[in-house]
Amino acid sequence: MAVQKLPIAKAINESLRTALENDPKVLVMGEDVGVLGGVFRVTDGLQKDFGEERVIDTPLAESGIVGTAIGLALRGYRPVVEIQFDGFVFPAYDQIVTQLAKMHARALGKVKTPVVIRIPYGGGIGAVEHHSESPEALFAHVPGLKVVSPSNSSDAYWMLQQAIQSDDPVIFFEPKRRYWDKSEVDTEAVPGDLHKAVVAREGTDLTLVAYGPMVKVALEAAAAAAEEGKSLEVLDLRSISPMDFDAVQKSVEKTRHLIVAHEASVFLGSGAEIAARITERCFYHLEAPVLRVGGYHAPYPPARLEEEYLPGLDRVLDAVDRSLAY
User: Fold this and answer.
1) CA 74 from chain center: how many Å?
2) Marked catalytic residue, from 130, 131, 285, 297
3) How far is CA 10 from CA 14, 91, 189, 317, in A?
4) What distance in Å separates the CA atoms of residue 78 and residue 80, rounded to the nearest whole number?
5) pTM exceeds cut of 0.85
6) Reduced to 3 states, what is the DSSP secondary structure of residue 225?
7) Is the confidence at residue 1, as pLDDT, over 90?
């Protein structure tokens, strides 16, 4: 059946399965991705069906995992690397930013590095230190990397397919607290552009931009604001690098107000780039300054405090009130 209602985790599993079936050069690598099926069971059953040579349990060595993936990509493979948790990616940061991101330019376009790095990211699961980070802006700042994040099951399936097919390296951020959220996936659909934003809800009074785990919060905020007679347009950014500034501009020219929401710290987060760029593009359309809603500029707190840290419905609605009060 082409259309199924799947959790995001299962949609990613199905996408990996499709890629492994369609291309013998696709490999899945990472800590516990094989026998265990991943700590979130995202890769469950793949090693059983495709074997240990294509779904590979690696040592606990992120730098080695990514370095090996780069070598495999240079030999014609399409490795899909899983970083078990967001905070574990930093031992591999050197490999990613100084090797993977630079290889295409260093070879004057003659060498391709089709590596996908899957990273479960964000908070909301009650985890311990180093398990609830949002480092997307660090990677988006690096030329040579594509950085994307789905917010629903359909995008999780199709965006991962497109990432695997890309000849450029893609950092694929998966919103781990949404892994079990279900929505429809049409595996026979024609996917849109990987780097195009989509309007998740139309509105006229204010544009609310979000991506990944914050899209659900943005939609909840739009529903709550509608009860007070405020019409919010929710734009799911989907791609963080490159960014679809044209879509944001088009919406802002209609609503004249903009709020950007993400879990990561507001300070130097991806929302800062959107705010600066849209202020340049839409200066004479804006009726209020661009506002940002995000995490505090502090290390991610212990699990009992994470609800205070994460930007939720109230903080988004407070920003809506402040923007519309100008």
Assistant:
1) 25
2) 131
3) 6, 28, 17, 32
4) 7
5) yes
6) helix
7) no
